[in-house]
Input
Amino acid sequence: MKKKLLSLFIILSVLFVMSFPLAAEINLLSPAEGVWSNKQMLVIDNSGDGDFFYSVDGADPETFGFAYDGPVLLDVSGQVQVNITRIGSDGKKEKTSVFYNVQADDAAKTPYHDFIQTFFDGGILNYSAGSQLVIPEDLYFYLGVLQDKNAPENYMPARTLCLSSESVLSRYIPCTILDRNRNIKYRFIIKTYPQSAGVYSRRDVPFEITDWETISFLDDNLIYKVDSEYWGLPTEPRRIDRSVSHMISWQPLEYDAGNPIEFFVLPPKPEVIREEEEDGSIIYSLKGDDSYALSLRNEADGSYSELFSKVGIDAFYGDAVSGNLTLGVFASSVYQGKFTVSYNINRRPPQIPVIKTNAEGFVSRGSVDVKITGVRGAELYVALSQPLTLSESNLNYSATDELFKNVPLGAYKKVKGENFSLRWAQNGLSPVYYKVSAYTKTDDNESSPVEFAVVIDQSNYYFDAEGDPEAADGTSLHPFTDFNQLSTALTKQRVVKLSVKGEMQINRAYNVSANFEITNNGDARLNFGPEGSLIVKASTFEISDCRIHNTADSSKKSIVPVIKLENSVLTMKNCIIGADFARNGTVIDASNAIINISDTMASANAVSYVSFISAVKSRMSIKNSSISTNAETSVVISANGGNLNAQKNNFSVTGVSGRIAELFGLTAVLKENSYKAQLSNNTSKNQPVYVNNSTKLTEEKNTAQGF
Output
């Protein structure tokens, strides 16, 4: 399976050795390790000494492989192992192997389908200098071969690529295309050509010029003269002054009056002009006689092909090209001499900065530390946005939301050194959005900017019983699915606002030192297990529009309150509570607390003893609520010290004995309340409200039934 010989165009590229140390003599452009969505080309720089053989099935290339003469499509998919062997003229062998995976995807349903089709079947895209190569905007691209496979690929946003129309280099350039949304990559070869072919004509003359000033006369059957000299038959090369023009004449040796005399005008040696264009390309031309033209030397055999009036060298944005180039000079299609030029065009941007942060995602629950690191030897530029304070209507966090897209960045500023660090904080109760962008610069090359943005929200959390536990981060898009996911925030944050949808299980005791608020986001139900409890310490707890229930365990004899308050404030509004305890139970246990309950329905049940509120040195306000307890001994409110204000409530107790309230040493105001009792041990001494001598009680318009 012999392939076509390479074109006579000079193949110039920055060729990098693949990852195996033994491959020092094998300059491989393609394929490369990775997972690709198209079949790969085999492209080796075989311009030097040696023969190359390859196989695509893991076999020994010398025995079961193919000879390599030029680029060839490797028509294989799935897991592929390419083995390559080079045999030098001295018999020395070099070997390398490349492993890659092809999972074909022709991008049929993408807006960039037509672009993929330009190389999908053949693995190569032909490009003519001066034309435009448009990378579709949905893609990112990378040119060349990675110098360090451990370094991140320096992908650049899509753009239009173009080479100077004067560029005459023919090159094979690897191009990697990335679709970040689909997480797939394509890799193909861009083959560059001059915009148009030069002139191939040559004039046949009986002399040869070497080293510009040396003329050798080739045909012994001719006589020659230079300028106005006598005719002669020179047998040795002669040197001439190339600073002036000369006329070389010749005619047959045997004189005849009708013999034609032919001549060639040799113009002065031209000056080589090197110009660097604004676009960074390099143009070589000749200053002198218009008959001069340039040609590129094929280093493999020393031949010259097309003639050009100008020779341009250029590289795509994102690429680099360097080396030496031999240019032959022709006058009226006759070779005059050569000169060698060195070139180095680097349009490869420096590595994009690396941003490291302690934020786990787009939403952070604490202060965010950001460190931006540029590449060594490059300048680092950083731009920051102004902090954007978010309102309640902005809490549906999405990085692609137009609100965040429209946040402007400030001016880029060069920073000292290669690193830049900053810390972002909420600095208040409202969430804040921050954004930073950075790029690196070396000479005239700039990397693509890299951005990092984050919302710092230490307060707002969401729970949804039907959410995805794998993605849960407590945001509205990815709500928590387990109350335990909130436990750290309840002790670390200043404020925690929890929006609940569905049933939330609380199966153990949780300490709460944050100011905690629970609201209903759709059928909110709090189900406390036998050991479930919220222990609120030196903070506030607000809950509204929720249903609360607990589960009894007959093996548990100790009292585990649903809510325990220590030096804290409880505000409960429009809730429904159903508490079932095994032997003894208390719904709310308070010490040095403030309790505000309104528009709430509650029932508490136990076997031996139950109370709705058991409080010490606390201030309580209960309004427009209905509360009942049921046990052998039933109490709605048991309080020692503090204050109680209860208005327009329905209180009831059921059991053997019980009271609406037992008040010791506090000030109480009870107005317009309804007391009801269903007690089997109902004596005249069983009053709805018991007070000791140190209690100051004010009662107005209360009614009692069953006492």
Summary: Residues 1-24 have pLDDT under 50 and may be disordered. The chain is about 5% helix and 50% strand. The CA atoms of residues 85 and 95 lie 5 Å apart.
